[in-house]
């Protein structure tokens, strides 16, 4: 059976960062990713990133992915298994991998450390006719549009004014598609207000305290009815608006994709501030299983910028735990943790900080 | 209100617009960034130190308007497209606005486009004075507008006859 020092599951911003850091210290890294190419959600992000000048701020997501994929290639000690899904983790430190479009290649890999950077899955919204063709998740819209150059429709209603709803709306406008409106159930826009303002000034109304009531159509989406909602999220009669659209895009949040952590027996906790079940971890990103680390959205839904830092922290500490030397380990480690802390030191990150406090353990032990 | 609609209020804007005296002197940056988020590329982009270095990455940008030359380098650095340069001294009747633009097609120099306000409503037509294509693809459009519209116009709409949807 093939063996590796560190198996990293997921090749998005967290996984790539972890791989680069661990490889730079000499560890043998195997990076397993289910995409046809590495990069995770980064390769769909055509907008410029926020964050620190030190950590790719102002650079478009797709460019960040290109740079990291290039960096990965420089290391002989990194093997990439692409187009592959990790289906299980076993007690003897073996992971099982199913590879190929039809999933007909089966591989086993023994790993001394595992960094799980599997990201998140999209949330669905219950409403009448949510199974009609034309109802999309925001991730699917981005994949179609930004990876394959296919527009999902002509007139879109966006559900959700978090950063994903706002960013995908902007990308739709760039693709020449009419975004009829953005509706948001909360009384406030959840995403960055600068994103909201740049969409608004292109003529897209943002309806806060509104939600989708019903979608109409025979074979596909033909129109929607939205309604204002009160503090208790109940429809306010008489506030309905009918909008003709052929596409409804859902950007109503993400949930950590943590199945493998459950199976591995990591201690899990439901933490609403982190958007679902996450593994308890120490500040090195190590879970209650000594050999399993986490990074990125699987550790709690946040931004790519923090995912990259978590990846670096996990990559560094996993490699050092195997005996690989890092000059100035303490300094490097502290620097990364300080940068992460700084990223979260704003009012929008209050919830994240509370959530992480709940997920933090002092020592990663069973 | 900004948090509900995406449109900054007059109160919001008052905090970021330089005083009349500075405006009368010529081009100057206006940073319509009202929310503490971890983001700092604007400060690094400014070669004149007009956008002050951030103590905390979550700070709102602070501008020393006396140091600002209105060069506009910062406009394309902002991930939020929140930076504009306004020249109230452009001519007797017109002001010049430099704004970030990431849509296609790009407007043509010398042609008229629709000038939009912060809600995306059309305020009228305005002449495109220049189109600066930048490496990072946040292009900078310079727009000539009546003086009275300088604090209102923040976007443009280009008529695209080949791509009507």
What is the element layout, followed by pairings?
The complex is a heterodimer of chains A (366) and B (165).
Chain A lengths: L1 E8 L3 H12 L4 E4 L28 H13 L4 E4 L2 E7 L3 E6 L5 E12 L3 E3 L12 E3 H11 L6 E5 L3 H12 L3 E7 L8 H8 L5 E3 L1 E7 L6 E6 L12 E4 L2 E4 L3 E3 L2 H6 L3 E4 L4 E4 L12 E3 L9 H18 L7 H15 L6 H10 L7
Parallel strand pairs in A: 1-2, 1-6, 2-3, 6-19, 8-15, 9-10, 9-15, 10-11
Antiparallel strand pairs in A: 4-5, 5-6, 7-16, 12-13, 13-14, 17-18
Helix pairs in contact in A: 1-2, 1-7, 3-4, 4-5, 7-8
Chain B lengths: L1 H4 L4 H5 L5 H6 L2 E4 L9 H5 L37 E5 L6 E8 L10 E5 L5 E11 L6 E8 L8 E3 L8
Quick tags:
heterodimer, A: 366 residues, alpha/beta, FAD/NAD(P)-binding domain, seven-stranded mixed β-sheet, five-stranded parallel β-sheet, 9 helices, 29% helix, B: 165 residues, alpha+beta, seven-stranded antiparallel β-sheet, 4 helices, globular
Structure description:
The complex is a heterodimer of chains A (366) and B (165). Chain A is of the alpha/beta class. Chain A has two domains: 2-121 and 254-359, FAD/NAD(P)-binding domain, CATH 3.50.50; 124-250, FAD/NAD(P)-binding domain, CATH 3.50.50.60. In chain A, 29% of the residues lie in helices and 27% in strands. In chain A, strands 1, 2, 3, 4, 5, 6 and 19 form a seven-stranded mixed β-sheet that branches. In chain A, helix 1 links the parallel strand 1 and strand 2 (29-32). Chain A is globular, with a radius of gyration of 21 Å. The mean pLDDT of chain A is 95. In chain B, strands 1-2-3-6-5-4-7 form a seven-stranded antiparallel β-sheet. Chain B is built from four helices and seven strands, in the order H-H-H-E-H-E-E-E-E-E-E. Chain B has one domain (2-163). Chain B starts with a helix and ends in an 8-residue tail after the last strand. In chain B, 12% of the residues lie in helices and 27% in strands. Chain B has 165 residues and is α+β, with helices and mostly antiparallel strands. At the A-B interface, helix 5 of A face helix 1 and helix 4 of B.
């Amino acid at each position: 059976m093939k063996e590796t020092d560190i198996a990293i599951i997921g090749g998005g911003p967290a996984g790539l960062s972890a791989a680069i850091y661990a490889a730079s210290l000499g560890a043998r890294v195997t990076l397993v990713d289910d995409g046809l190419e590495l990069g995770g959600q980064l390769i769909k992000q055509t907008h410029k990133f926020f964050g620190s000048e030190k950590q790719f701020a102002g650079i478009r997501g797709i460019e960040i992915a290109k740079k990291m994929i290039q960096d990965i290639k420089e290391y002989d000690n990194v093997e990439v298994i692409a187009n592959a899904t990790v289906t299980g983790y076993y007690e003897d430190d073996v992971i099982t991998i199913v590879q190929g479009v039809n999933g007909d290649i089966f591989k086993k890999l023994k790993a001394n450390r595992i960094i799980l950077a599997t990201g998140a899955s999209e949330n669905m919204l219950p409403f009448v006719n949510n199974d009609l063709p034309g109802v999309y998740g925001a991730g699917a819209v981005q994949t179609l549009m930004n990876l394959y150059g296919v527009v999902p429709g002509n007139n879109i209603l966006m559900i959700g004014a978090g950063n994903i709803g706002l960013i995908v709306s902007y990308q739709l406008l760039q693709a020449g598609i009419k975004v009829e409106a953005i509706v948001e159930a909360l009384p406030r826009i959840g995403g960055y207000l600068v994103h909201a303002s740049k969409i608004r000034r292109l003529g897209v109304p943002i309806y806060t305290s509104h939600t989708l009531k019903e979608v109409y159509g025979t074979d596909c989406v033909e129109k929607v009815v939205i309604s204002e909602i009160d503090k208790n999220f109940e429809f306010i009669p008489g506030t309905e608006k009918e909008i003709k659209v052929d596409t409804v895009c859902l950007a109503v949040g993400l949930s950590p994709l943590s199945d493998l952590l459950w199976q591995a027996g990591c201690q899990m906790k439901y933490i609403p501030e982190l958007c679902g079940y996450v593994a308890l971890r120490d500040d090195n990103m190590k879970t209650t299983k000594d050999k399993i680390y986490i990074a990125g959205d699987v550790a709690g839904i946040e931004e790519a910028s923090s995912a990259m830092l978590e990846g670096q922290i996990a990559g560094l500490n996993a490699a050092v735990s195997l005996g690989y030397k890092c000059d100035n380990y303490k300094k490097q480690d502290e620097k990364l943790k300080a940068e992460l802390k700084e990223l979260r030191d704003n009012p929008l990150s209050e919830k994240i900080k509370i959530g992480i406090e709940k997920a933090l353990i002092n020592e990663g032990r069973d | 209100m900004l948090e509900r609609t995406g449109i900054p209020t007059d109160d919001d804007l008052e905090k970021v617009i330089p005083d009349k005296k500075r405006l009368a002197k010529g081009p100057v940056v206006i940073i319509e960034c009202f929310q503490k988020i971890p983001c700092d590329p604007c400060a690094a982009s400014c070669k004149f130190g007009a956008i002050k270095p951030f103590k905390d990455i979550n700070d709102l940008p602070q501008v020393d308007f006396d140091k600002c030359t209105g060069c506009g380098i910062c406009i394309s650095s902002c991930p939020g497209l929140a930076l504009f340069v306004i020249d109230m001294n452009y001519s007797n009747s017109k002001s010049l606005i430099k704004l970030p633009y990431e849509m296609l097609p790009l407007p043509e120099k010398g042609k008229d486009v629709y000038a939009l306000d912060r809600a995306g409503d059309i305020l009228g037509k305005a002449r495109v004075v220049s189109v600066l294509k930048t490496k990072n693809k946040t292009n900078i459009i310079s727009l000539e507008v009546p003086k009275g519209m300088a604090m209102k116009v923040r976007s443009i709409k280009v008529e695209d006859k080949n791509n009507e949807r």
